[in-house]
Amino acid sequence: MADITAPAYRTIPIIPALKPGSMEGKGPFVASDKLNEALGFPGQLVEDWHDRAIAKMGDLLSKYRSLKVFMDACVHCGACSDKCHYFIGTQDPKNMPVARQDLLRSVYRRYFTLPGKLFPKLVGARDLTREVLDEWYNYFNQCSECRRCSVFCPYGIDTAEITMAAREILDTVGYGQKYSNEIIGKVHKIGNNLGLPGPALRDTLEGLEEDVKDATGIDVRFPMDVKGAEVLLVTPSADFFAEPHIDSLIGYAKVFHATGTSWTLSSMSSEAGNFGMFIGNYDQLRTIAMRIRQAALELGVKRIVVGECGHAWRVAYSFWNTLTGVGDGADPNDRFAQMLQKQLDHRYKQPAHICEFTWDMIQDERLTFDKTANDKYIITFHDSCNVARGSRMGDLPGGQFEIPRNIIKAVANNFVEMAPNTTREQTFCCGGGGGLLTDDLLDLRVKGALPRMEVLQQTVDEHGVNFMATICAICKAQFTKVMPIYGFDRKMVGGVHQLVSNAIQLGQK
Amino acid sequence: MTSMVFAILFYLATLLFVVGLLYRINSYARTPAPLKIPTTPAPTTNGGVVLRMTREVVFFESLFKANLWTWAAGWLFHASLLLVLLRHLRYFTEPVWGWVAFIQPFGMYAGITMLLGLGGLWLRRLFVERIRYISTPSDHLMLLLLMGIAASGLSMKFLAHTDVIAVKEFFLGLMHLNIQALPADLLLIVHLSLVVSLLVVFPFSKLLHAPGVFFSPTRNQKDDPREHRHLSTWAAKLESEKS
Ligand code: SF4
Ligand code: SF4
């Protein structure tokens, strides 16, 4: 990938000028027949794609109020137009959130509204042609569904919802994206996104036990498929072997060990990630989530805890209760949900984020730390988009910002914030989310990381920051790949529980 | 003759406006929102949602965060429009309600600030590259329509007075199915024609943002997915099919 270089930092982050067509192209690799068919989609672009696409659009409009309202409500005010990291990094006007929406909206207007049928030119309505379909494929695979634009829209229009709808339409006509569909196929076949089979997983975990024993002298367990454990941990499969993810997995295990919590992983559902959300397909989203319900029922666990993964936490926090009943407050007649909810311990939030778990333990003084173990680091925190804008932790709105920061401050001495208009709900996506973490999109990923890299550079220059913590597997993978291209050390990025792991005192309490 | 034409136009336009809007609102309300998607941090209580929505509708909170210029022009326009509309109640009530009489003088100036706000929005549309890029002809026309309404209304106040007593009688008559003569005054005809056009296009255009904002799931949902199971009818059906 020698030809991919980082765009120059903007000296003052001014709004970039437009470069029409700069990201035109064929988009990421198209999924093969096999990959599409495994998910129940047509293998290739179907003959009658035009009619099927319009029919699907109508179907989605009747099923999703978000799509229906968002198609009508946009006033083209442009408030969102400069808020997308992909627009900032690529300057392609079609990456402005409103312009991205308009790729779909123009077709909606043509086929579903009276003015679009009568005066298409006047209201910017277009026929659905092959060019338009290709344009959808290209530009709806340049959106990470990060929802930053929705924060600023006066009507809360969320381009992520529109991207999901567009991808769902594309899949329906046999025009799926390789990376996402391949991953979903692996979850169904093997149980996790990385295609790590059960025995290999068991080996990995045993290896980890040895490593931790060597490093600390203590027997920290990484249990799998333990019936009757209190906690089922569901974590992104990258945690099992990717760097730096694995250091966070060690951190979770140490927290469980130090607090005497019985816990287990599940070989059947060794994956928290759920790419069903990325392709906007409710059935896939639900089927993938159901594995966790099934594992929880089979293992008889009392709590379900989710590891450091951004979109997985959004799915878990916001959707699991709806999809699978993992949560609380189901109707007494709702047998499907009650079956599971009766089993779960409702003194705790269901599901809980690992950061909520650890922070509770810190507050209960069941953990001790040697903060100096992290003294070599000056740490900043990158809010991951799905956690920041699609979920919560704790009891109060904004807990998803406070709790990870509180943990960092509890385990380390040096913490600084990045610029306020790029953190919390205004955080920038890492550039690799939403099913775009694939090498065929590396150019886009590098450009999309620009706004985050600029701000990181600023904290490096001003405060000597040398560690950026984050709680998302995709952020970690994206940054380790992209940061060297911007001239940073790839080891600068890591998980919050990696810091916990460094400082935690085992065997004291 | 003009009176009769305008009477019919107003009846039809109002009918279209009301029926069209109710139809839209009904279709938004009936479309399910299968998943919890509030843009977080979001309120966790109903009261909190009402507050969030109020801040959004009254102060344009999100727009304020996004862009000060657009916010300033947009807010000035909408606030002025509200005052102007309220001021116009005096053409439909007899005796005029006390508070409507009270805001009369402000309402007059609001016509001017409304024009300023609209002008600001149009300048942005014309001269800011990004916004020019996303603008369709109808976006420009919509602003021109509103500016035309404001300008023709103001001219009747400041340039060539129209017989407001007769105008009022026309509208009071209209409300009692009793058509009265409308002054044959060019500015008035222009003003009223543009208003009729606005009523007609409203339910078919981006002006649907007005009811739409209240139905936006990212803004009107409570953030409580772990505490309550949220299930739409079509999603619930999937459960009865399989376990
Ligand atoms: S959701 Fe994120 S990536 Fe997509 S258009 Fe909005 S800001 Fe850009
Ligand atoms: S901020 Fe909202 S209304 Fe304004 S252009 Fe963007 S999507 Fe449309």
Molecular structure report:
The complex is a heterodimer of chains A (509) and B (243). Chain A is mainly alpha-helical and 509 residues long. Chain A has helices spanning 33-38, 49-63, 65-73, 85-90, 97-112, 114-118, 130-139, 148-152, 159-172, 178-190, 198-216, 245-258, 282-299, 310-324, 335-341, 354-363, 385-390, 399-411, 442-448, 450-463, 473-482, 496-503, and strands at 231-234, 263-264, 303-306, 352-353, 379-381, 467-470, 493-495. Chain A folds into 3 domains: 33-182, no CATH class; 190-355, no CATH class; 368-505, no CATH class. In chain A, the strands form 2 sheets. A 4-stranded parallel β-sheet of chain A has the order 2-1-3-4. Chain A has a 3-stranded parallel β-sheet with strand order 5-6-7, sandwiched between helices. In chain A, helix 12 links the parallel strand 1 (231-234) and strand 2. Chain B has 243 residues and is mostly helical. Chain B folds into 2 domains: 1-30 and 68-209, Fumarate Reductase Cytochrome B subunit (Up-down Bundle), CATH 1.20.950; 37-66, no CATH class. Chain B has helices at 2-30, 46-59, 61-66, 68-87, 98-127, 129-134, 137-158, 164-175, 186-201, 209-212, 217-220, 233-241. Chain B is globular and about 65 Å long. The N and C termini of chain B lie far apart (70 Å). At the A-B interface, helix 2, helix 3, helix 5, helix 8 and helix 13 of A face helix 1, helix 3, helix 6, helix 7 and helix 11 of B. One iron/sulfur cluster binds at residues 74-80, 97-98, 153-155, 157 of chain A. Residues 83-84, 86, 97, 100, 143-149, 159-160, 163, 429 of chain A line the site of one iron/sulfur cluster (SF4). Chain A: InterPro entries: 4Fe4S_Fe-S-bd (IPR017896), 4Fe4S_Fe_S_CS (IPR017900), Cys_rich_dom (IPR004017), Helical_ferredxn (IPR009051). Chain A: It comes from Sideroxydans lithotrophicus (strain ES-1). Chain A: Residues 65-94, 133-163 form the 4Fe-4S ferredoxin-type domain. Chain A: One of its GO terms (molecular function) is oxidoreductase activity.
